[in-house]
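Thought: the user asked what Peptidase M15A C-terminal domain-containing protein looks like in 3D. I have the sequence; next I should run the structure tool and report back without guessing.
Action: structure_tool
Action Input:
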Amino acid sequence: MPNASTLNNRTLSGFASLVTQGTITLRASAPTNCLPGSLQEVVADVASKFGPVSVESTHRSTSRNWRAGGARHSLHLSCRAIDFRVRTRTRGVMAYLSSRPEVGGIKMYRNGLIHIDNGTRRSW
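Observation:
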C-alpha cells in the first residue's frame, strides 16, 4: 500500500495524512501519484466529513478499462477519475460532491461505488 512519502509532491497534505492514518485506503492497482490534487482534496474532504474511504480505481490501461466496462473515452485512461467507497456514513455524500466545483462527472453505482472526475459537469 502506498504511503504518504510515495505520493506525488503536488498532493495536498490532507490526502497524504489521511492515507498514512488509514482513513483513506488505496488499492495497490489504484495509483494516486497521477491524480489531480483537486480530486485528491475532494476525496480527503469526503473522508473527513463522512468517514473512511476506500479508493478502488484511478488510472486504467485501455484493456483494463474495457474489462471494467468503462467508456471508450473514460477519464480513468488519463488518470482524471477516481472510483471510491465511503465505508460508513453515505447519507449526504452525493449532495456534497455535487456542491464541489472541482467535480465534473459524478455517479453512484448500485454497488455503492462512487465515481468522480474532473471533466465537464455530468451524471449518467
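Thought: the tool returned a structure. Summarizing for the user.
Final Answer: Structure for Peptidase M15A C-terminal domain-containing protein predicted. Residues 5 and 110 are 34 Å apart (CA to CA). The domain at 4-117 is CATH 3.30.1380 (Muramoyl-pentapeptide Carboxypeptidase; domain 2).
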